[in-house]
Amino acid sequence: MIKTLQNTLLKLHNNKLFEFSIIGVIIFSSLLIGVKTYDLNPSYLLVLEVLDVGVTVFFLAEILLRFIATTNKKRFFHNAWNVFDTLIVTVSLIPIDQSEYALLARLIRIFRVLRLVSAIPELRLLVNALLKALPSMGYVLLLMFILFYMYAAIGSFIFESINPVLWGDISISMLTLFRVVTFEDWTDVMYETMIVHPWSWVYYLSFIFFNAFVFLNMMIGIVIDKMQQEHENDEEGVHERLKRIEQKLDDLSM
Q: Which candidate, 25, 79, 143, 178, has a CA 20 to 30 Å from the CA of 185?
């Protein structure tokens, strides 16, 4: 009886129409959050609150369905996305809208938008790849910071007399270099220093070459490599799940 119920719920959860309905409710929930930022009639706010409760109940039912359909209950919480979804739904159930923590409740409900990531496999794969790329990206960021610090110190020593607002100290110089590396009117900064130091274009172009071209492409390469690994792991996982399903079907037929 329990296995029959689990198989029925599993088929329902894996149904494409049901998956699209979950995505639709998540998008609808996101729109509700956006609508609440406008000044609305109190009667409309009441309607929005009712709809918000309906969305929360739907999310709770979906989590329970997923939990019941899982054969090994302990493994359900081994999945980080399941833990994330459960946490968001659980916090949404806490009745603190009329308390001093009402603002916190609204902020937490905003994170329900991230359920769209957990509901779409492609987005989950992208986020997993990004998270796994962070350690390698950290070394690249550290090297970028070292170059930022060195160039900021050089710029502060040489260009402070030209424009103290942009080069007054090392922290302000680093902000100026961030403006340069994002190409936000960086030529204005360069031409201003070139009036006094005509060779200063070498300073800016070398900084842009290393930080905007070399290191940025290194970070992109790291993310792409991790995404490719995630694709391979995902394909292997799909094959393993298919094998387990076939084994279960064979056991049931026997």
A: 143
